[in-house]
């Protein structure tokens, strides 16, 4: 299903996006050396409940996971990159953390992810990986607008990642979003311009470039959810939910202070 939001729904989408962004920013600020991933999940739950919103993850049970997910946020560390299920682990100096959060407020969902380093250590290549996903994300957003095609976004993202020297996995990518978290169209992180669905005002997309340092192959943890690099290398992931407008693309998942 491809869903086109009306103006009233878009107003609610802005609120959902701001909530997701503000929660992620708060969690990043609270996360440091010694923070337990289960505490991050509890903090996320408390902020979601306080806002009168609902987690998109707790009851999430797609075909590729061993569901339901059972937690309020995805927490991926170092070689984990997607669908990281929180567990009893305390963050160490230099850990590369990805927090991925999807929340529904007023019946409209928003989805975003951030990667960052904990503590003072800066292991080789980690900052470059995070920055590559951020550049790719903004390149994809820059070409999104009415009349553009999904392939234009995929090509823009993949070009940045490829030029930075990373292989691109095409099993998981961006997606449509609206009254539910995952909708059509699928947005691959590499592709050919001029192909695919033509973007229309009112369409919401979650764009999410992610990379692994030296491989494009994933393996799944025994928890049935957490996806890691097959070689044990580090990973990074950046995501925004955007709305296609008459004028281009609006980023919905910016923290309140950056709007």
TrEMBL record:
<feature type="binding site">
    <location>
        <position position="239"/>
    </location>
    <ligand>
        <name>a divalent metal cation 2</name>
    </ligand>
</feature>
<dbReference type="GO" id="GO:0004239">
    <property type="term" value="F:initiator methionyl aminopeptidase activity"/>
</dbReference>
<feature type="binding site">
    <location>
        <position position="100"/>
    </location>
    <ligand>
        <name>a divalent metal cation 1</name>
    </ligand>
</feature>
<dbReference type="InterPro" id="IPR036005">
    <property type="entry name" value="Creatinase/aminopeptidase-like"/>
</dbReference>
<protein>
    <recommendedName>
        <fullName>Methionine aminopeptidase</fullName>
        <ecNumber>3.4.11.18</ecNumber>
    </recommendedName>
</protein>
<comment type="function">
    <text>Removes the N-terminal methionine from nascent proteins. The N-terminal methionine is often cleaved when the second residue in the primary sequence is small and uncharged (Met-Ala-, Cys, Gly, Pro, Ser, Thr, or Val). Requires deformylation of the N(alpha)-formylated initiator methionine before it can be hydrolyzed.</text>
</comment>
<feature type="binding site">
    <location>
        <position position="83"/>
    </location>
    <ligand>
        <name>substrate</name>
    </ligand>
</feature>
<feature type="binding site">
    <location>
        <position position="111"/>
    </location>
    <ligand>
        <name>a divalent metal cation 2</name>
    </ligand>
</feature>
<comment type="subunit">
    <text>Monomer.</text>
</comment>
<keyword id="KW-0031">Aminopeptidase</keyword>
<feature type="binding site">
    <location>
        <position position="111"/>
    </location>
    <ligand>
        <name>a divalent metal cation 1</name>
    </ligand>
</feature>
<dbReference type="Pfam" id="PF00557">
    <property type="entry name" value="Peptidase_M24"/>
</dbReference>
<feature type="binding site">
    <location>
        <position position="175"/>
    </location>
    <ligand>
        <name>a divalent metal cation 2</name>
    </ligand>
</feature>
<dbReference type="InterPro" id="IPR001714">
    <property type="entry name" value="Pept_M24_MAP"/>
</dbReference>
<comment type="similarity">
    <text>Belongs to the peptidase M24A family. Methionine aminopeptidase type 1 subfamily.</text>
</comment>
<keyword id="KW-0645">Protease</keyword>
<dbReference type="InterPro" id="IPR002467">
    <property type="entry name" value="Pept_M24A_MAP1"/>
</dbReference>
<feature type="binding site">
    <location>
        <position position="182"/>
    </location>
    <ligand>
        <name>substrate</name>
    </ligand>
</feature>
<feature type="binding site">
    <location>
        <position position="239"/>
    </location>
    <ligand>
        <name>a divalent metal cation 1</name>
    </ligand>
</feature>
<dbReference type="InterPro" id="IPR000994">
    <property type="entry name" value="Pept_M24"/>
</dbReference>
<keyword id="KW-0479">Metal-binding</keyword>
<feature type="binding site">
    <location>
        <position position="208"/>
    </location>
    <ligand>
        <name>a divalent metal cation 2</name>
    </ligand>
</feature>
<keyword id="KW-0378">Hydrolase</keyword>
<feature type="domain" description="Peptidase M24">
    <location>
        <begin position="14"/>
        <end position="246"/>
    </location>
</feature>
């Amino acid at each position: 299903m491809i869903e086109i939001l009306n103006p009233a729904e878009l107003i609610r989408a802005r609120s959902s996006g701001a909530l997701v962004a503000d929660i992620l920013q708060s969690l990043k600020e609270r996360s440091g050396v010694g923070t337990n991933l289960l505490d991050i999940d509890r903090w996320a739950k408390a902020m979601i409940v306080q806002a009168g919103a609902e987690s998109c993850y707790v009851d999430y049970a797609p075909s590729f996971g061993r569901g339901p997910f059972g937690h309020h946020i995805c927490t991926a560390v170092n070689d984990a990159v997607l669908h990281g299920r929180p567990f009893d682990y305390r963050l160490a100096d230099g850990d590369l953390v990805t927090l991925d959060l999807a929340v529904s407020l007023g019946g409209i969902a928003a989805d975003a992810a951030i990667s960052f380093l904990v503590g003072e250590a800066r292991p080789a290549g980690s900052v470059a990986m995070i920055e590559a996903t951020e550049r790719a994300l903004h390149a994809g957003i820059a070409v999104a607008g009415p009349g553009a095609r999904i392939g234009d976004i995929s090509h823009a993202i993949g070009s940045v990642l490829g030029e930075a020297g990373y292989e691109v996995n095409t099993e998981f990518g961006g997606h449509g979003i609206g009254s539910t978290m995952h909708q059509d169209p699928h947005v691959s992180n590499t592709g050919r311009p001029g192909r695919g669905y033509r973007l229309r005002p009112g369409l919401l997309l979650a764009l999410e470039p992610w990379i692994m340092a030296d491989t494009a192959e994933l393996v799944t943890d025994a928890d049935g959810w957490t996806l890691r690099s097959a070689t044990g290398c580090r990973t990074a992931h950046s995501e925004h939910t955007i709305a296609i407008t008459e004028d281009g693309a609006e980023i919905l998942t910016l923290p309140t202070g950056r709007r």
